[in-house]
Design goal:
This protein is mainly beta and 118 residues long. It has no helices and 11 strands.
């Protein structure tokens, strides 16, 4: 079974940038469609962006379009989320997962906390 480990979160000021990484282990040549999700304080977990197994971004939430970029390196079994122009409302725990039609399709990792201050 694939295990996912997210990293790269932290505390950043509004307008700053972070790059999140999600490394998959337990399966060679991992090439499933992947997505990043986030869960803010008191909110449900929502999909942020998804990418095909071939590395084509498929979906961005309206709230992150133009600011976030999803990418992947299948040779490293890693999916990335470059986050620019961060806003306080981006504060959340960010998770990655395999996806089917924007829905998570596997077990969750521990996530990585992103906190954006004014």
């Amino acid at each position: 079974q694939v295990q996912l480990v997210e990293s790269g979160g932290g505390l950043v000021q509004a307008g700053g940038s972070l790059r999140l990484s999600c490394e998959a282990s337990g399966r060679r040549n991992f090439a499933a469609a992947m997505g990043w999700f986030r869960q803010g304080p008191g909110k449900e977990r929502d999909v942020v962006a998804t990418i095909s197994g071939q590395g084509i971004p498929v979906y961005y939430a309206d709230s992150v379009k133009g600011r976030f970029t999803i990418s992947r390196d299948n040779a490293k079994n890693t999916v990335y989320l470059q986050m620019n122009s961060l806003k306080p409302e981006d504060t959340a725990v960010y998770y990655c997962n395999t996806v089917v039609a924007r829905r998570a399709s596997g077990p969750w990792g521990q996530g990585t906390q992103v906190t954006v201050s004014l």
